[in-house]
Amino acid sequence: MNSDKETMTAKNYQGKPHEGDVKEVIKKDYEDQLRGQYHDQVYEGVKAGLRTQFYEKAIWQAVYKRALNKDEATATDEEKEKAKKTADDYLEQNKEAIKDDPNTS
Questions:
Q1: What three-state secondary structure class fits 87?
Q2: Rounded to two decimals, what is the model's pTM?
């Protein structure tokens, strides 16, 4: 973005005598509030992501077991691959519903 033009900043900015004090007071007043707000946002995002991953895995396993319809130890590799594909396809088809509300998919 117009990197060849000079910006409108002071070349040797010295600052005002009490500028640092004012910045510290403002920082002290708002730091906890901002830290809490961003922490809550990040925490909720991580929690939602982990919940979705958990339910995706649980749904995948349920669909896989239903598609396999037998004990995994006695199933052939071909049957296992077919069941895996069925589970993968189910997750792909219902990805948005699971993301919106993983509890009801």
A1: helix
A2: 0.60
What are the angstrom distances between the C-alpha of 16 and each of 13, 25, 32? 9, 15, 26
d(CA 65, CA 69): 6
Are 71 and 20 in contact by the 8 Å Cβ rule? The answer is: no
Residue 84: strand, helix, or coil:
helix
- pLDDT tens digit sequence for 28-66: 888 888 888 888 889 999 998 898 899 999 999 999 999
Nearest Cα residue to 62 out of 43, 41, 44, 86: 86
Q: pLDDT tens for residues 41-51? A: 899 999 988 98
What is the radius of gyration, based on Cα positions, of the chain? 27
Which amino acid appears at position 44 of this protein? E
Distances in whole angstroms, Cα of residue 22 to Cα of each of 12, 14, 43: 20, 15, 31
Assigned token pair, 11: 């070349």
pLDDT of residue 32: 84
